[in-house]
């Protein structure tokens, strides 16, 4: 338990250190945080990012459609007892006719 707490504490401390250094260190007149923010905004407008965004939206729509279909199939799997009895009778008749 102590090792887990130590690991969480070290990870949080490391993350905090990275964030603080990103604000304090300046490069070409801008902090590293500002540099990263600028680069990300340029990357979001690239054609590759638009293609990836379009592809992921398609995947999400397919996944949502598949989950709805699966839910409907699961609901339809329940066979009422009267239908089960009819199926049993039909199977018996088929077995007798052989």
Name a few traits of the molecule.
single chain; 98 residues; mainly alpha; two-stranded antiparallel ribbon; 4 helices; 85% helix; 4% strand
Q: What does this protein look like?
A:
This protein has 98 residues and is mainly α. It has one domain (2-96). The protein has four helices and two strands, in the order H-E-E-H-H-H. It has a two-stranded antiparallel sheet with strand order 1-2. The radius of gyration is 30 Å and the shape is elongated. The chain starts with a helix and ends with a helix.
Structural class: mainly alpha
Portion in helices: over 70%
How many strands appear in the DSSP assignment?
2
Shape: elongated
- Average pLDDT, rounded to a whole number, is 86
| Helix run count | 4
What amount of the residues lies in strands? under 5%
Please give the alpha-carbon distance between the first and last residues. Answer: 68 Å
Radius of gyration: 30 Å
State the major sheet: 2 strands, antiparallel
**Would you identify the regions where 5 or more consecutive residues have pLDDT less than 50?**
none
Please state how the strands of the largest beta sheet are arranged side by side: 1-2
Number of separate structural domains: 1
Order of helices and strands: HEEHHH
Blueprint of the fold:
Blueprint (H helix, E strand, L loop, with lengths): L1 H23 L1 E2 L2 E2 H13 L2 H31 L3 H16 L2
Antiparallel strand pairs: 1-2
């Amino acid at each position: 338990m102590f090792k887990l707490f130590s690991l969480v504490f070290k990870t949080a401390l490391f993350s905090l250190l990275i964030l603080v250094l990103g604000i304090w260190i300046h490069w070409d007149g801008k902090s590293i945080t500002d540099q990263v923010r600028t680069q990300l905004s340029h990357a979001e407008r690239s054609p590759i990012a638009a293609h990836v965004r379009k592809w992921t939206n398609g995947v999400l729509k397919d996944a949502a459609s598949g989950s709805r279909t699966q839910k409907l199939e699961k609901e339809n799997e329940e066979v009422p007892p009267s239908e089960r009895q009819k199926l049993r009778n039909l199977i018996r008749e088929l077995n007798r006719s052989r």
